[in-house]
Amino acid sequence: MIRVLLADDQSLVRAGFRALLDAQPDIEVAGEAADGAEAVRMVGELRPDIVLMDIRMPHLDGLAATRAITEDARLDGVKVVMLTTFELDEYVFEAIRSGASGFLVKDTEPDELLRAVRAVVGGDALLSPGVTRRLIAEFAARSKEPAASTGLSELTEREREVMALVGIGLSNEEIARRLVVSPLTAKTHVSRSMVKLGARDRAQLVVLAYESGLVRPGWLG
Q1: Does the domain spanning 143-212 belong to CATH 1.10.10.10?
Q2: Where are the alpha helices (DSSP H) in the chain?
Q3: What pLDDT score was predicted for residue 220?
Q4: Residue ranges per domain, the chain?
């Protein structure tokens, strides 16, 4: 059973999500929070698998709440997905850097929401290639000159190659076709890269690819 915490200051939004999620045989809503501070407290108490976190909330916003959760080693297994009104909300990029596993627009289709919840808990990529590329474009527009990173020295040549392809927004299937390997092999290389670099998920691997200079904005095509 996938346990979800809903964090949104609008009760109608929470009610809509609860009705959808609780209707699924493999998902249950463990609790609801009306602000970021309450969300952090409830995550510590309930230890849900995933938090659907609104970015804009009173007392403590979703960005600060996400950072508090992802920086707490005791909550390492808790995934956070940000909820926003606009796909390229000005805070979305910072949310990914703060440890969020991805983001969803609030008016996303019900099937997409359910798929996203299951994907994140299962360890797969939440961000579609199209959304990832838009996120990368935002990153490229804001980023400074990449800093040299020694972390990449731990990666094999193939892992660096795979990480670069993740960085330009390719899915595991697209990486597999590009390198003429199986999707499982591509996923294994991605997973090993994440472990070696301490990335919580694929979204952070994209950020690290840019911050390390492995991928440059001009690669967007």
Answers
A1: yes
A2: 11-22, 36-46, 62-70, 92-97, 110-121, 129-142, 157-167, 172-179, 183-197, 202-211
A3: 47
A4: 2-127, 143-212
